[in-house]
Amino acid sequence: MKKMKKNILLTFTLFIMLLSTGCTYGTHFTIGSVENNTMNSMSMKYAKFSGNKNKEFTVKEVETIKVEVDITTESGKIDLYIESDKGETIYEGHSLETQNFTVNISDNGKYKVRLEAKNHKGSYTIKWK
Fold first, then answer.
1. What gap in Å lies between CA 80 and CA 41, rounded to an integer?
2. In the chain, N or C terminus with fewer CB closer than 10 Å?
3. How far apart are CA 8 and CA 16, in angstroms?
């Protein structure tokens, strides 16, 4: 009985941790990856990343969000899209090389960051505040 309570507590704790870190989704394959996602960021360093990763966030009224992007490309290809829930493309970049840049979003609503990679070696960090 004590073991069952411990398992329930562990399951509940993992569920709460998953909810508190935000949700990234997509279909992808990685080798040698270390990933860190929060409510306001997504990042991963890897030897190989192929597929796509997505994360959604909301911009509230009377708020401007700065989306800070840091991409490192050693080899392969990575594309980045930032899209509104209305279907508007805010940013679109293909075959991104190593670079840092900022995208400003001032319209309220829901947005999605989408990464698409093919045999990409390197890392990405995307933060919004």
1. 14
2. N
3. 12
> Angle 92-96-99 (CA atoms, 0-180°, nearest 5)?
105
Mean of the per-residue pLDDT values of the chain:
86
Residue 53, token pair as written in the block: 């990763």
Two tokens at 99?
A: 């670079």
Q: Is 55 helix (H, G, I), strand (E, B) or coil?
A: strand
Taking only the tens place, the pLDDT of each residue in 50-76 is: 999 999 999 887 778 999 999 999 999
Give, rounded to a whole angstrom, the gap between the first and last alpha carbons of the chain: 45
Name the helix (H) or strand (E) containing 9: helix 2-20
Q: Residue holding tokens 């990234």?
A: 24
Query: Tell me, what's the pLDDT at 61?
Result: 77
d(CA 112, CA 120): 21
Estimate to the nearest angstrom the gap between the alpha carbon of 23 and the chain centroid: 8
